[in-house]
Amino acid sequence: MRIRIAVPALACAIVLGSLAATPAFADTAVKPTIDKAKVSSLVFGTTGTKKVSVSVTVSDDSGVKGVKTAPWPKLIDPPTEADAADFTPATCTASSATTSVCTYTEKLNVTDLANELAGTWYLAVQVTGNDGGTAFKPKATSFSFKRQDKLAAANATPEPVKKNATLTVTSKLTRANWDNHKWQAYTKQSVKLQFLKAGTTAWKTVKTVKSSSTGAVKATAKATAAGKWRFVYAGNSASGAVTSAADTVKLK
Q: Which of 44, 58, 61, 230 is deepest in the core (most CB within 10 A)?
């Protein structure tokens, strides 16, 4: 997948030249419309590949000749329509005389990513009608590539515990580092301690604590009943949500 849009000067010249040579009727053609666009949001760990799926629904009164797409990260400047020469062509299937659904799928390896690329991405789309009219949206839709987080299985002590005694629950929060492909401590993050009373089905948040400089997560609570304890991290714009495995605690 192209994750950085670079348009050589020669490509720009070709694009500009082709625009200048466009027949006059294209200037008065009704512009195509980009009706709907969707890209799968994904969470990546330290290794492996995942499939990125792009789907765009477009229409034009003359029919759709073709669609080109390019995903791009929020941290760079938006592409322009002149950059579309470097976009990836999608495969279009007509659903009517005027409307087509265009798709593109590619595998993305985490080795193609860097930490700075985590977070919001956009999809740029250019559509061309059979009459030569074009439409362009640099932000046809938004999606995200996030760094995976891990929470170690919750460990509650002591076990078993006396009713109303203090229980200490620990875990560790780590985050995928796309620069060196290792797991690193994720510090100063708000993590919720939750409890599921035996015989019930609804988890309840007991308190919120922050991960330490080593990623350690530690919370204390009163053991008012037997049940399960776990930690939950909600994630953020660049990191995925994660829930630890629970620890079942019985009362003495």
A: 58
Mean pLDDT of 148-177: 97
182 and 136 both lie in a single domain: no
Note whether 106 and 52 are within 8 A (CB).
Answer: yes
Token digits of residue 213:
């400089």
| DSSP letter string, 45-58 | -SS-EEEEEEEEEE
The amino acid occupying position 9 is A
Residues 120 and 166 in one domain: no
The answer to whether residues 49 and 128 belong to one domain is yes
Tokens 């070709």 appear where? Answer: 14
Report the candidate in 63, 52, 8, 68 with the shortest Cα–Cα distance to residue 144: 52
Q: How many domains does the chain have?
A: 2
Task: Supply 201's token pair.
Answer: 């089905």
Distance in Å from the first CA to the final CA of the chain: 57
Report the candidate in 81, 61, 67, 50 with the shortest Cα–Cα distance to residue 176: 50
27 in a structural domain? yes
**Position 159 pLDDT exceeds 80:** yes
Q: Which pTM value belongs to this model?
A: 0.84
**Beta carbons of 127 and 64 less than 8 angstroms apart:** yes
Read off the tokens for 150: 């891990």
